[in-house]
Structure formats: structure tokens, C-alpha cells
Amino acid sequence: MPALKIRSWAACGRIEKDRLYVEYLWVDSRFRGQGIGSNLLQAVESAARDGGCVESQIETLSRKTARIYLARGYRVTHHLCNYIPGLTLTVMTKELGESHIVECSAFLPLGGR
């Protein structure tokens, strides 16, 4: 039987239209602080940019993780309080290229009377 290889870091995401959604980026605690996560994020963003993406989006429940993404050029677009009881979901985006995205300043009500 071949030896099992255990990965100590991983990243995955999906692309919809021209936006990258980073769904998972993880580095084992033994390897944190060595730039591995930053390199993973840059590689995913670069591949998405090469594929025509103009924006990346990341969601996190961790304030510490949100600060890491802020330092890498992401900005907070939403906070969803009590997304999971006791936890706030932070949604963050970063422009990867020339964007055609328009900021929405109008509230669009959902549902009717």
C-alpha cells in the first residue's frame, strides 16, 4: 500500500462570471507565519486574474482572519451579525483587475406587501 501524503496547507475556490470566490484557505498551525498562506492566496488570485476575473471575495467568521485579509488588500463589504449564533460573518472583496462593478447605494426591498 502506498504511503499516505498529508497536506499541511490547501486552498480552493470557484469562479462565477468574473469573480473568484475563495471558499477555503488553510495552513496547518505548524507552518503558519512563514508566508505560505500569503503565497497560496497570491497564486489563487493570479490564476483567477489570468482567467479573466476582476474581483475576489472571501468570507470569514474570524476577526483575526479578517485582519489578515485586510492587510492583503481586501476591504470589508458586509458584516452579517449572528450569522451563526454568537458569530459575525465578514464578507470581503478585492479588485484583481479593471472592474466594471458598480457600487449599489439603493436598498432593494425583498418581497411584497
Query: What's the helix-strand series?
Result: EEHEHEE
Main sheet summary: 5 strands, mixed
Arithmetic mean pLDDT: 88
How much strand content do the residues show?
35-45%
Written account of the structure:
The chain is of the alpha+beta class. It has helices at residues 36-50, 63-70, and strands spanning 9-16, 19-27, 55-60, 75-84, 87-95. A 5-stranded mixed sheet has the order 1-2-3-5-4, covered by helices on one side. The N and C termini lie far apart (64 Å). The model has no long low-confidence stretch (mean pLDDT 88).
List the helices and strands and how they pair.
Layout: E1 9-16, E2 19-27, H1 36-50, E3 55-60, H2 63-70, E4 75-84, E5 87-95
Parallel strand pairs: 2-3
Antiparallel strand pairs: 1-2, 3-5, 4-5
Quick summary:
This protein has 2 helices and 5 strands, in the order ββαβαββ. It has 113 residues and is an alpha+beta fold. A 5-stranded mixed beta sheet has the order 1-2-3-5-4, with helices on one face.
Notable traits:
alpha+beta, 2 helices, 113 residues, five-stranded mixed β-sheet, globular
